[in-house]
Amino acid sequence: MQVLIADELPPICIEILEKAGLKVLNKPGIKAEELKTVITACDGIILRSGTKITAALLEKADKLKAICRAGVGVDNVDVQAATKKGIVVMNTPEGNITSTAEHTIALLFSLSRFVPHACASVKAGKWERKKFTGIQIAGKTLGIIGLGRVGRQVAKRAAALEMKIIGYDPFISPEITSQYSIQIAKNLKELFSQADYITIHVPFNSETKNLITHKEFSIMKPGARIINCARGGIISEEDLCNAITSGQVAGAAIDVFDAEPPIGNKLLELEQVVVTPHLGASTEEAQFAVAVEAAEQMADALTGKGFRNAVNLPPYNIEEYNILKPYITLAEKMGSLLIQLATGGIQAVDIIYTGEITKRNISLVTDSFMVGLLKPALEDGVNLVSAPHLIAERGIKTNITTTSGTSDFTSLITAKINTQNGEIEISGTVFGKNEPRIVDINGYGVEAILNEYMIILFGKDKPGLIGNIGRLLGNKNINIAHMAFGRKESGGNAITIINVDAAIPPECLQEFEQIDHIDAAYLIHL
């Protein structure tokens, strides 16, 4: 079997692969046209960020069994297309944690003491000591958004520098954060209002795109400083530029950009901004570590020893998987729905399986639920392999129960999460052969379809409510595909679940809550 190394990696990578009995084709920097030809003869590909694996390219990859990204993100691999072809996609989330955390601290110092500017000034023959009077970081508050592996390592180092640490991550428990001297913020608004420095360690996805815009800058502590070693697109670059120009934000240190290289980016024109060319993982040690990790994972995958850090892990038992597939889909969507309805950090998860499903291997279903629950928030990514470990790592207690007791359904999954602000419980089943449905939310009996875009409204059962909802959506030119309604008694509390055909503008949330008899509104994206 042959493995292509498509980007520059240390020689140890070749040594590990050849020792495992694999043939290595070492072509760092391979051009797209040549890759189209070469990929047809490859069983595996190891790459960094320079090579892009597209759906069109994968159409020719009939032999390809595994792709491994030597690094955390797999943005340059079309994971969906790979999954359809049965190709395993892996990453190496462990190797560059320390390097990224250290670079974050390096940027924090550079931003505080004007290191790049002072260096350039002295080299230009100047001696401007007063101009570069800096800010002491001891005693300042560092706000960390995302407390995964990198975020916690940043906290560890910042605490040693005598900084006060405040963090926000709905997937972390107090038992874990107490080990890192982190005070947990109830929400991002609380973090923004208290932090002198803000550093970001979350993935880039639909949930975190433009996580920080004009609105968030406006509620930050005046003179706050921003550091981003995560991904471009999480911060609105235009709004950051405006916030710095206005003085609301004192400065920023940016390692990642919407477009790289950031040609013509206005942030580069501001003297308050320190920039580096995506160097978070660029240390000799990190490069070596991810190369070893990638080579070992590829060797294991192609020699039948199993998959590690697979972001699209295929089932081992195809027959069992096909039977459980509708419930796997249901469980992941239930996890995603629950976390979008929750407020406050998760403390515990309970899953109860009832009926025929208890006779199957439910571990795959449980892990799929955890994937849905965790996926929006983790900078390391989450998959069927990593989900149980990540749940345990964050100190979230889990309790799985099976019961042969009777219900209205042949098989039923009930999931409950406990947060700092209470608990939320939903139940779901599969209608027919492959129609996942939610049949209960917090005691309201419903029959809700789980499609991509949903609106969930809690309020009172009053005449005119449905008409007001329809008018609001009609005015926004949003088509209603399906609507479900549940209540506990006539005229009492009620729930309305609306499936729509397109994304819902965020401003709709406030407009829904202004409708008479609606107490809370949630825009759901599955």
List the helices and strands and how they pair.
Elements (H helix, E strand, L loop, with lengths): L1 E4 L6 H8 L3 E4 L5 H7 L5 E4 L7 H4 L7 E4 L9 H6 L3 E4 L5 H17 L1 H9 L17 E5 L3 H12 L3 E5 L5 H4 L4 E3 L3 H7 L2 E4 L13 H5 L5 E5 L8 H10 L2 E6 L18 E3 L8 H19 L15 H24 L4 E10 L7 H12 L12 H7 L3 E7 L7 E9 L2 E10 L3 E7 L2 E6 L3 E8 L4 H11 L4 E8 L5 E8 L7 H6 L4 E8 L1
Parallel strand pairs: 1-2, 1-3, 3-4, 4-5, 6-7, 6-9, 7-8, 9-10, 10-11, 11-12, 13-14
Antiparallel strand pairs: 13-15, 15-16, 16-17, 17-18, 19-21, 19-22, 20-21
Helix pairs in contact: 1-12, 5-7, 13-14, 14-15
**CATH-wise, what's the superfamily of the largest domain?**
NAD(P)-binding Rossmann-like Domain
In what order do the strands lie side by side in the largest sheet?
8-7-6-9-10-11-12
Structural class: alpha/beta
Described by strand count, sense and barrel closure, the largest sheet is:
7 strands, parallel
Number of helices: 17
Cα-to-Cα separation, first versus last residue: 38 Å
Regions with little confidence, pLDDT below 50 for 5+ residues? none
- Tell me the number of structural domains: 4
Q: What percent strand?
A: 25-35%
**CATH fold naming of the largest domain:** Rossmann fold
CATH class descriptor name of the largest domain: Alpha Beta
